[in-house]
Amino acid sequence: MNQCKCLLAALACLALCGCDWLSDDGVHLAECLKAGAKALQRSADTELTVAFEPLDGTNQVYTVQFCRNSAVVVWSKHGGSSTYQLNYVALPKDFYLHRTNEATLVTLRKNGDRVDVVDVR
């Protein structure tokens, strides 16, 4: 019974602290794309460039891959992958980029009712 109380107390603390410890750079990139797509949809602009920085910052070497109509993958200290961004952006082609000590810039473009990733640099 005491173990259950301790477990419940620990879960409550984690819930109050947030779930950032469950995140990785793939999910973080997907969240950046989601925020950019929503901002672009609310805007009169046709393009928007979003800056992605890994969770530990840009003071590292990391690689970003956008797989056509599929996942985003980040190789870094907290690397990971996600398909969550597909709810908000389309990935009409592949991108693969190595970065050292700088952010990755992702250009989003309105294409009718959808938002496409059109450039990664």
Give keywords.
121 residues; alpha+beta; four-stranded antiparallel beta sheet; three-stranded antiparallel beta sheet; 7 strands
Describe the structure.
- The protein has one domain (20-120).
- 28% of the residues lie in helices and 33% in strands.
- It has helices at 2-17, 25-42; strands spanning 47-52, 61-66, 72-75, 80-82, 95-100, 104-111, 114-120.
- The protein is globular.
Shape: globular
- Structural domain count: 1
Number of helices, where a helix is a run of at least 4 consecutive DSSP H or I residues = 2
User: Going across the major beta sheet, what is the strand order?
Assistant: 4-3-2-5
Class computed from helices, strands and strand pairing = alpha+beta
What is the succession of H and E elements? HHEEEEEEE
Terminal Cα span: 55 Å
In terms of DSSP E residues, the strand content is: 25-35%
- Strand tally is 7
Global Rg: 17 Å
Mean pLDDT: 88
Largest sheet entry = 4 strands, antiparallel
In the predicted model, the low-confidence regions spanning at least 5 consecutive residues are 5-19
Helix amount, in percent? Answer: 25-40%
